[in-house]
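User: Predict the structure for this protein chain, please.
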Amino acid sequence: MNPDTHIHDIAPNINVVLNRDGKIIPNELDAAFRRNNRLHIVEWKTRQFKGTGEDTPGAEALYKLDTLGDLMGGLKARACLKP
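Assistant: Here is the predicted structure, written as structure tokens:
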């Protein structure tokens, strides 16, 4: 049996609202889709991220993607940052 190689449920510009300990946290995803029953989240950025370290905008974008992937799709979710 071959795995499903088709992309399903493509959705651009998704607004997600998370409730973390009573605090409402709004987020916007550039795109998301499902492939092989796995959630894929895509974030596009039009800027170049300079600098290194945990307090940079690039690190913040990656942290956001990692957190949303875990919360929404679990361990098998995939997130992609596309500059």
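The helical segments are 57-73.
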